[in-house]
Design a protein that fits this description.
By secondary structure, the protein is mainly alpha-helical. It has a domain of 69 residues: Arc Repressor Mutant, subunit A (Orthogonal Bundle). 47% of the residues lie in helices and 10% in strands. It has a three-stranded antiparallel sheet with strand order 1-3-2. Strand 2 and strand 3 form a beta hairpin. The longest helix is centred in the last third of the chain and has 14 residues. The radius of gyration is 21 Å and the shape is globular.
Length: 138
Amino acid sequence: MPPSMENLTNGDGEVNMHEEMRRAFALLSGKWKLEIMWLLNQRMYRFGELRKAIPGITQHMLTAQLREMEADGLVSRTVFAEVPPRVEYEMTQKARGLGPTMQALTAWWSEHGQSVPVKPSARGRKTVAPRSSHIHRT
């Protein structure tokens, strides 16, 4: 039986595994980070492709999430000196180490996903139709 988290967190000079795992969870927490990582695990994406692939995400939020993931060393960003500029995002080698975790999640979902109730998506901003003008034509 593996040791419990508590057994790994006590003692002088020992690594506090509970705190370390909280740091690990924080890397992937956020409304969109796991979905972004899932997509980038498949292939390299351009910014516009990522935005189209994630329904409901705003440009601002995608930019913020990608910047955080780049700062954490999970995503690399390549800017090409072209007009218009082209920017590509891909997982770093460090992030590729999460591949087995994603494979395990895929296997779990294949087995149990049908038993999970479908929830309506409330992500991102909803598009609001512009109000019609009150100008009367004569």
